[in-house]
Amino acid sequence: MLASYSCGTWFRATDEGEPLLDASTGEEVARISSTGLDLAAMTTYAREVGGPALRALTFHERAAALKAMAKMLGEHKDDFYALSARTGATQRDSMVDIDGGIGTVFSIASKGTRELPNDVVVLDGQPERLGREGSFLGQHVYTSRPGVAVQINAFNFPVWGMLEKLAPAFLAGLPTIVKPASQTAYVTEAVVRRIVDSGLLPEGTLQLLCGSPAGLIDELGAQDSVAFTGSAATGAHLRQHPSVLHGGVQLGVEADSLNCSILGTDVGLDDPEFELFVKGVVTEMTVKAGQKCTAIRRVIVPAAMADDVVAAVSARLAKVTVGHPTSEGVRMGALASLAQRDEVRKAVQALRASSEIVFGNPDVVDVVNADAETGAFMSPVLLKAHPGASEPHDIEPFGPVATVITYDSLDDAIRLAARGQGSLAGSIVTHDPSVARTLALGLAPWHGRLLVLDRTSAAESTGHGSPLPVLVHGGPGRAGGGEELGGVRAVLHHMQRSAIQGSPDMLSAISGQWITGSSRTETDVHPFRKSLAELAVGDTISSATRTVTLDDIDHFAEFTGDTFYAHTDEAAAQQNPLFGGIVAHGYLVVSLAAGLFVDPDPGPVLANFGVDRLRFLTPVKAGDSIQVTLTVKQITPRTNADYGEVRWDATVVNGSGDPVATYDVLTLVAKQWPQEPS
Ligand code: NDP
């Protein structure tokens, strides 16, 4: 019997449960049941134990825990591969699920470290000035919800499905309860067991529910969320749940998706794009035996190319060996279960109302090292739609099945793609930039992700069907309307965005970052003499003033070669409507400002690694004086390094106090100074 991990202990139901069968042999792998599991206690435990422990960590600490977890899981991959094969998955299929899942955690953790502050609150955009004097501002912030994230996953990706949702929720500060699809839950259980045993995630941040989740959603409230992947029917059922309708539970759905690949009008039989198109279709039909939410179901081609496409796809499909997933030479394993195969056969039957089968037989298949009846094997099936067919746009055959549909013009292709009513991923295969633009702009509103494939991108392309951790995964309309992944976006989806209004000092205190207009701290010690441990947000240096001379401007022009007329030719500069005479180079102003604010001696400031948001606001003319104020805006210690990042607000003003230039200076500062000898 599979165990659930609940409230810090492993729970095993004592009833008979339901058998879970090996997809290829029909042998029992495990039994599953959640009878007797206290779901209310699980949600309370997540909120009261997991959540507080997680939110006590900064984003960087959470990212470090995720990274360590991904590393640990990588060391146990062989165990997961062995179990994954029992779901019907070939080595390549398992790689997508297991290595894909682990890679996703690494990627999200790394984004968290690089793009989120080492804090527990995220600022969204710049402060908005709400009053004349600047004493009343607004700032958008993201904070963690004191709730629980429930994941309800599909059977096709027992590892990736869990990890791609867990990583962003964990970073966002939300504990997770994972409910894997029963059919393949034994793989998820093995992974969760490793995570729990490792102790790398704080207790209560990850719980596992194996078996029926009946009653779970009733326990959820306004700070909780459900991320569902599965059938449109279950998705619709969840949307109607009173906790969602009236209780404020946030529901994300990823359900049916009739993804398309479109061959551009420019592509001929001898173009490399033709081969790329055909290869893409065959790959998507056969990887995971077509049981992928992003798989290509609709092959949309110019009418004149249809026969060539059918012939080329069929020729490739004929070479696909179906059989036991661990056998030598097998390209496609079994579907997840006999019931799933029945569903796909039914879908093919329904598609035949308006399409004819041009390759394969849904009821007959040659298999290697397995029994075609006890195992859930099926031949790839290619259909060709009759003109005006509606079924290919409505029925999702969740297996190795695709339908060729013809179009007459690019507008027609866009109209056909839109008949899917919203998809996760679409491909456009063309080498013509104008075809690419027309199709991409027409298709984008209907898609979460679009791949534009041609000979230039092919070598590095990650393919049509691979969701990428740094790009949005999800799609509008029928695909569920959800949005997962997409780098830090995925984290922010789990957080609450609020606008906070108040004085600059209040907003600085709340956000942990110095905000324009708030107090500065100026002491006798130059901030460049302070280590990261000694620096504080608001520490400031106000420089001496310096007069910019015509000699300075001439010298800079000659020295750098930037002899743009506005800096060198008085008569021409007079004609410039913005300057009306020679002005100093903006970069000269910034360079002089650096000369004014640095403390030159060796010290804790190790490097200047860039400048953000540089704006030149008022021209500086010969004879004008400038003065700079440098203020610590944000301090971000780096994990596993002897230094951290300091972002400084730099404001340069002229003799009248008008701002001349504003920017953020980015430096690396030693955590301790003097540094301990290593
Ligand atoms: P289901 O919708 O039946 O199951 C998905 C998940 O929801 C499983 O974890 C399941 O648990 C759970 N579940 C089922 N009923 C409820 C309920 N009433 N309340 C809460 N959770 C529930 O889909 P399947 O995984 O069985 O797949 C069926 C079809 O869904 C496929 O043939 C395919 O067409 C489509 N599908 C689409 C995907 C996509 O992203 N486009 C991905 C996967 C599937 P349990 O397994 O224990 O029943």
Task: Describe how the helices and strands are arranged.
Blueprint: E1 4-6, E2 9-11, E3 18-21, E4 28-32, H1 39-55, H2 59-74, H3 77-85, H4 91-115, E5 122-129, E6 137-143, E7 149-152, H5 160-171, E8 176-179, H6 185-198, E9 206-208, E10 225-229, H7 232-239, H8 242-245, E11 250-254, E12 259-263, H9 272-286, E13 296-302, H10 306-317, H11 338-351, E14 355-359, E15 381-385, E16 401-407, H12 410-418, E17 423-429, H13 433-443, E18 447-453, E19 472-473, E20 484-485, H14 488-492, E21 496-502, H15 504-511, E22 540-547, H16 550-560, H17 565-568, H18 570-575, H19 586-597, E23 605-616, E24 625-637, E25 643-654, E26 659-670
Parallel strand pairs: 7-8, 7-10, 8-9, 10-11, 12-13, 12-17, 13-16, 15-16, 17-18
Antiparallel strand pairs: 1-2, 3-4, 5-6, 6-21, 14-15, 19-20, 22-24, 23-26, 24-25, 25-26
Helix pairs in contact: 2-4, 3-4, 3-6, 4-5, 9-10, 12-13
Bound molecules: NADPH dihydro-nicotinamide-adenine-dinucleotide phosphate.
NADPH dihydro-nicotinamide-adenine-dinucleotide phosphate (NDP) is lined by residues 152-156, 179, 181-183, 213, 229-231, 234, 237, 254-257, 293, 343, 396, 398.
Cross-sheet strand order for the largest sheet = 14-15-16-13-12-17-18
Gyration radius from CA atoms, angstroms: 30 Å
Care to count the β-strands?
A: 26
Total helical segments: 19
List each distinct ligand once: NADPH dihydro-nicotinamide-adenine-dinucleotide phosphate
> Which structural class best describes the helix and strand composition?
alpha/beta
Largest sheet: 7 strands, mixed
Q: List segments where confidence is low: pLDDT < 50 over at least 5 consecutive residues.
A: none
What is the helical fraction, as a range of percent?
Answer: 25-40%
Beta-strand fraction estimate: 15-25%
Distance between the termini: 53 Å
Shape: globular
